Amino acid sequence: MPAKTHSKPTVLLVASGDLRLSANQVCWPAQKALEASLTAAVEAEVRRIERAHPYKPREKHGFIASQREGMEIFRTIDPDAPLIVAEAVWQYSHHILAGLTTHRGPILTLANWSGQWPGLVGMLNLNGSLTKAGVRYSTLWSEDFTSPAFKARLAKWLETGSIKHDTSHAKPLAKTQIPDAPEKSGAEIAATLKRDKAIMGVFDEGCMGMFNAIIPDHALHACGVFKERLSQSALYHETTTVADAEADAVRAWLDKKGMTFHTGTNDATDLTDEQIRWQCKTYIAALRIADDFGCDAIGIQYQQGLKDLLPASDLVEGMLNNTDRPPVKSRDGKRVLYKGRALVHFNEVDECAGLDGLITQRVHQALGQPADNTLHDVRWGAPYGDDYVWVFLISGAAPPSHFNGGWKGAHGYRQPAMYFPKGGSTLHGVSKAGEIVWSRIFVKNEKLHMDLGRGRAIDLPEEETRARLEATTPQWPIMHAVTYGITRDQFMARHQANHIQLAYADDAESADACLFAKAACARDLGINVTLCGSLAP
């Protein structure tokens, strides 16, 4: 018999997932619901949608769960077929990147507008990775895949293979006149960095498939920054050499500062005192190794390798990013390491965030502004009153100086078991209201780019904060943020990463000065700078 044919044109669908089986199993129902809604939307446009890989009964999910699996699946895919990458979860971009680099048909990355697992974060990482790899794609997102705007854009992509979004909020720095004082400060910082140089300590590269987070050496070197490639096995070994008494002194410092740890006795489900002790040892070990190599910033991958050996590193990372933190002495006891300043930590070894954090620290210090900074996930967002308020959330690396109440507003909860089998404390807090500068460095055409903008962190009622936390990951630190002069969809259309870098300033005028000085510094380092949005609401 002849092969069965379909009268409707076919669109293929792939879904990249986590590397961790537990996460893929827990998150599969959300992905299944997304695909059902998307199927209805595609079929309403007189198209047929077909999964390019099956549900796996033994594993109890339908995600592509490794790079090798992705390569094998793409061998069976028509390279000219329209292809949708649909994501309701955090995913490892390298699972499908190889196949997408040689796919000739139109590619659409798509996510549900939800903070749950979250697909938005996964899609933004994939977008940044595709941009770095030079792969053409379009992108879409939706709350329920039924709005007129979504349906119109989907129809456009199905018809033409391309979608264009409004990015009029983004202006090249060359079109802006930088005030003299921040211009001079930024230029001096860039000149110093290129002359004296700096070291980023990288504890294993390529965390969680984040291809977009790896800066090519030639681009980094042009900024005067060089990688010290370190091993997490060395960090583990150093951690095992730290004495209990030293770790307990760090814990006592945290307790005295007023941080609240929510502990129990069941190691599998509770945060335990022993888990915290190991985190305090890792904190000491990280500082000592950073000092050994003269690092100006470090990034711990953690989520591969160390997750099977030690409790989560997020409490460690948040302490490192905070100027007011437990003192740690050199092994001989003669020096306090990195005394009086934060040691910039770039979560998940996101080197773009590491370079950004290093620049941010130096700019804010030079201008007499708060220098503590961090990355957050662009997790989700929703309107509140007259504002669109983003949920910026990260797994624990935010410094307590950003929180309401500082250390007294910091809480330690056990990390979710599906991600962190050995547990460990988060560094949870709600970010205080204030003027912020946000930024993101990304790689495009083998060159570094920086998007830079202004905004404010705001206070929301306790019940709204709790609702947003419960819609995401309540154990993690959160910032309620408003970005000036940028709509939700403009931001999503332009942003090239799952992460965003954030720092406070004392007031609006100081924040503007920091933005301009940072822009001038980045420009003089050879980074292509784009100013996004406006300086005021």
Q: What features would you describe in this structure?
A:
By secondary structure, the chain is of the alpha/beta class. The strands form four sheets. Strands 12-13-17-16-15-18 form a six-stranded antiparallel barrel, surrounded by four helices. Strands 2-1-3-4-5 form a five-stranded parallel beta sheet. Helix 4 (119-133) links the parallel strand 4 and strand 5 (138-142). It is built from 15 helices and 19 strands. Mean pLDDT is 96; it is low at 1-5. The chain has helices spanning 21-43, 67-75, 94-101, 119-133, 148-160, 180-196, 217-221, 232-241, 244-257, 273-293, 314-320, 351-366, 462-470, 488-494, 508-524, and strands at residues 10-14, 48-51, 83-87, 107-112, 138-142, 170-172, 198-203, 225-230, 260-261, 297-300, 344-345, 373-384, 387-393, 411-412, 434-444, 447-457, 478-483, 499-505, 528-532. The protein folds into two domains: 10-160, Rossmann fold (3-Layer(aba) Sandwich), CATH 3.40.50; 175-532, L-fucose/L-arabinose isomerase, C-terminal (L-fucose Isomerase, Chain A, domain 3, Alpha-Beta Barrel), CATH 3.20.14.10.
Care to give the gist of this entry?
By secondary structure, this protein is an alpha/beta fold. The chain contains 15 helices and 19 strands.
Using brief descriptors, characterize the structure shown:
537 residues, Rossmann fold, L-fucose Isomerase, Chain A, domain 3, 2 domains, six-stranded antiparallel barrel, five-stranded parallel β-sheet, 15 helices
